[in-house]
Amino acid sequence: MSRFFNTAGPCDPRFHYMVPPEQRLPEVRRLLERMGYVVVHAPRQTGKTTILRTLAKALTEEGRFAALHFSCEQAKVAEDDYGAAEQIVLAALRLSAADALPEDLCPPPWPESAAPGTLLRAALRAWTRACPRPLVLFFDEIDALRGQSLISVLSQLRAGYPDRPDNFPWSVVLCGLRDVRDYKLASGGEAPRLGSSSPFNIKIRSLRVGDFDLDEIRMLLAQHTADTSQPFAEAAIERIGEVTAGQPWLVNALANEVTAEMGVEPPAPITVEHVDHARERLILARQTHLDSLAARLAEPRVRRVLEPILTGALASADPYDDDFQYVADLGLIARDLPIRIANPIYQEVIPRVLAVTYERSVTAAPRSFVLPDGRLDFDRLLNEFATFWLEHGDVLTQRANYHEVAPQLVLMAFLQRVVNGGGSIHREYGIGRGRIDLLVRWPWTDARGVRSDQLEALELKVWSTGRPDPLDEGLRQLDGYLHRLALDTGVLVIFDRRADAAPIHERTRLARATTPAGRDVTLLRA
Questions:
Q1: Cα separation of 268 and 231, whole Å?
Q2: Is the pLDDT of residue 197 over 50?
Q3: For residue 191, is pLDDT > 70?
Q4: Which residues are paired to 239 by β-bridges?
């Protein structure tokens, strides 16, 4: 069986192309050697489970430790029933040990006399005393536990910590989406968190699994080339790195889309054009990984961080801001400055998800905007949007979850509905500059059969209460955007969100304007 790019579950070197797992978290081994109790965290599908499973297997095979990786995910159903939760955790531990460890290293029967809330500590004590090697345990999906169950498990680990290594595991690794201080006490986006009073204050370090760098992406793709003789052009490798920012699932998903789903058969090389097409297919498909991120967008903590980014306003990047850290831990924003959405693919997915309700309200037929020669009738599109805004703008923006960016999302939804399947929209968020830049790319073929891209650039601004009319600033900014794109004309859209703004039917109008550099542009006030 040939290997392939994995997009579901842990990687196995027998079946999957993969970056060497221990290379991605080299410091954890040193901490385990020092009897460390460690937290490992990263967003979903970044390789955490693969790394820990591989490390546990290696430590056991080397003969010094009895190391076991197991998942706490099934204990989620126990909620606050901590007695049931520890029973489920220990059952998962025993099943995993039976599969991964030789019989002489497996746990003995659990103590029958231990009361609920003490069984986990008693069981691990009994196993440590019976095992001929020091125990190293990897608790994966630890943050699936909630409420009193989570507190009980963490408290029992802390209570046993002073007894190691003779009467408690040598090392423990807790693995989840977030750092231990951000574990929730109950389900739901606004649930209270453990914070600095965490009962797991015995950790020696918190480690985050990082994204791939360009060399690791090359290493991963080179395995496919070695197996199939199908090369990735250097420009294609760089484009994968650019649009994914190294997010491991996205890298694998793009590579899989090109090699397995798009019919690019070896030995034909993979080009930038293949990667760009795969990127758009991936965004449109909204696979499970992207959907799981989308589900987070409704959480108030996530909205508080993302909304300023989407509007182009200044956003808090205080390293001690819990909400900022939470959204970064989820993988939605980059952890370094400047504050921004984590990668260009998420940058496309997030507004599309937020705008999907608006898009369902758009009844315009996409093909009606295509001219006989194949170009997009952009003037007509703007006029149709102005009409749509007059009819529906107030209602759509009033019911918006992301209220501050609602008008921009409505426009993006209208554009998306029109260009879907025929073109694409590229979004840029001018953080701290109060703007969103959109580039509509529409491929068409002229009468001679020459294929080219029609480019239409828009800049979106908001006129807020207490602020001056952003027209002059917007025209200057649009000049810079058009210069960068080598375009002579564009569109400036100003949404009036002032408390005393004129009614929508009075303020919505199209006009012409001139930028400081003399470019003739369309001005839409709405």
A1: 8
A2: no
A3: no
A4: none
Q: Is residue 516 part of a domain?
A: yes
* Amino acid identity, position 60: T
Is-cis flag, bond preceding 165, omega within 30? Answer: yes
Do residues 189 and 160 share a domain? yes
DSSP run (H or E) holding 428: strand 424-430
Strand ranges in 301-393 using DSSP code E only, listed in sequence order: none
526 and 389 Cβ atoms separated by less than 8 Å: yes
Q: How many CB atoms lie within 10 A of CB 14?
A: 7
> In the structure encoding, which two tokens stand for residue 344, read together?
């260009």
Q: What are phi and psi of 343, to 5 degrees?
A: -160, 165
Mention every residue, 6+ apart, whose C-beta is less than 8 A from residue 429. Answer: 309, 310, 312, 340, 341, 347, 436, 437
Please spell the DSSP secondary structure of 150-204, one letter per residue.
Answer: HHHHHHHHHHHGGGTTTSS-SEEEEEESS-GGG-BSSSSTT--B-GGG-TTTT-S
Spatial strand order in the sheet of 66-71: 66-71, 135-140, 171-176, 37-41, 205-208
Strand order in the sheet with 520-525: 424-430, 435-445, 451-463, 491-496, 520-525, 509-514
Residue 445 identity (one-letter amino acid): T
What pTM value is reported for the model? 0.88
Q: Which amino acid is at 475?
A: L
pLDDT in tens, 99-142: 999 999 999 999 988 999 999 999 999 999 999 999 999 999 99
Kindly state the tokens that stand for 34.
């020092």
Q: Domain check: are 138 and 40 in the same one?
A: yes
Distance CA 172, CA 6 (A): 28
Helix (H) or strand (E) holding 88: helix 82-100
Last residue of a domain, one of 193, 208, 223: 208
Task: For 26-41, write each residue's pLDDT tens digit.
Answer: 999 999 999 999 999 9
What domain count does the chain have?
Answer: 3
CA atoms of 57 and 77, how far apart (whole Å): 28
Give dist(CA 107, CA 98) in Å, integer: 9
Q: Are 186 and 223 members of one domain?
A: no
**Exposure string (b/e) for 124-147, b if CB count within 10 Å is 16 or more?**
bbbbbeebebbbbbbbbbbbbbbb
CATH code for the domain in which residue 93 is found = 3.40.50.300
Q: How far apart are CA 356 and CA 290, in angstroms?
A: 14
372, 511: one domain: yes
- Domain, as residue range, for 372: 313-525
Secondary structure (3-state) at 30: helix
- Rounded to a whole number of angstroms, the distance between the first and last alpha carbons of the chain is 58
Token pair 């998942």 is at which residue? 71
- On whether residue 12 sits in a domain, the answer given is no
Q: In angstroms, rounded to a whole number, what is the distance separating the alpha carbons of residues 249 and 212?
A: 10
Torsion region of 163: left, alpha or beta (phi above 0 gives left; psi -120 to 50 gives alpha): alpha
Distance CA 402, CA 179 (A): 27
Structure tokens at 516: 């400081």
Q: Is residue 25 included in any domain, yes or no? A: yes
Claim to verify: residue 319 and residue 425 sit in the same structural domain: yes
The type of residue at 420 is N
CB atoms within 10 A of CB 354: 25
